[in-house]
Amino acid sequence: MTSSRARSRRRALKGGGAQADAAATSPETGGESLPQKANHAGLHHARRRGWYHPVSFWESLSIRPRFYSAVLVGSLAYGLLPDSLALAVRAAITWDLGGLTYLLLALRLDFTSDAAKIQKRAARRDDSRLIILTIILLAIAASFAAITAVGLEAKLPETSAKEKMSLAALALFTLVISWSVTQIAFALHYAHAFYRPDPGSDAGRGLEFPGCDRPDYWDFLYFATSIGAASQTSDTLVKSHALRRLVTLHAVVSFFFNTAVLALTVNISASLAG
User: Fold this and answer.
1) What is the pLDDT of residues 199-253, one digit of tens each?
2) How many domains are contained in the chain?
3) For residues 143 and 181, is the Cβ–Cβ distance under 8 A?
4) Mean of the per-residue pLDDT values for the chain?
5) pLDDT tens, residue by residue, 41-52
């Protein structure tokens, strides 16, 4: 009798241990043991530090040299410009210098890379959607500030013809910089989304370039400028939901940006002529 009870107790303990092991490695835990899942969760938490964390801050500086260099140059320029300039003019010049820095660094650091380097770089460096949105808003604000400054200064009776032409040149240069920076930012993001699939997203490899399996940055710039100029895609096929949403945003922003710039330019031209 005692032996029978002992065997029953051993079977119960063995069954309980098996159930515990099954629960620890059940599909709900992703097929991992609880210590493994806890360890992975800890690593995931460590990787997702806040931007204010010292390690995350310096990592962000190292992987986004274009953006932070442009911010630094723009900030220095704004502080060095004389206070006698109109606020809109100072803002436009600040944006122009920062945007030009962003463009030059992108052309130097990125557009000399082949597909293999892009794939390696995309695994650790990308301009997030927040940064792209910030760039777009700054581009629009700077463009409108420059054009508005030209219009207001042109209407002043003490403004000479030479000063009007200088303001018009500033406005034109600001428009070119703003449009170019926006397209470069989108092109880089398209490239990194193509070569770095995100977990749970279908964005990776979501573009198909005819006759090209491993596109470089110039291919993505071709795709971005087609949308930026015509608000529509070219011969490149978009095959993912995530990139379709981004392309839609790009096309809508480009349409309103181009329309507003055209309308304001006509207005400024009339003011300068008058």
Assistant:
1) 555 455 788 898 888 888 899 999 999 999 988 888 899 988 888 988 998 999 8
2) 2
3) no
4) 74
5) 444 444 444 444
- Residue 100's pLDDT band, with cuts at 50, 70 and 90, is very high
Q: What is the largest CA-CA distance in the chain?
A: 114
Residues 81 and 38 in one domain: no
Both tokens of 162, joined, read: 């030479």
Cα→Cα distances 116→56, 120, 214, 231, 237, Å: 26, 6, 8, 30, 22
Distance (Å, whole) CA 80 – CA 58 = 27
Contacts of 76 (CB under 8 A, 6+ apart): none
Tally Cβ neighbours within 10 Å of residue 215.
20
- pTM for the predicted model, two decimal places: 0.69
Using alpha carbons, select from 96, 101, 76, 71 the residue that is nearest to residue 149.
96
Per-residue pLDDT, 274:
61
| Residue 269 neighbours by CB under 8 Å, 6+ apart | none
Q: Is residue 16 part of a domain?
A: yes
pLDDT tops 90 at residue 11: no
| Amino acid, res. 156 | L
Domain that holds residue 234: 63-273
| Bridge partners, 42 (sequence order) | none
Domain identity same for 238 and 191: yes
What DSSP string describes 35-64?
HHHHHHHHHHHHHT--TTSHHHHHHHHHH-
Q: Give residues with Cβ within 8 angstroms of 258, minimum separation 6.
A: 229, 231
- The dihedral built from the CA positions of residue 101, 104, 109 and 111, taken in this order, carries a sign that is positive
Together in a domain, 29 and 72: no
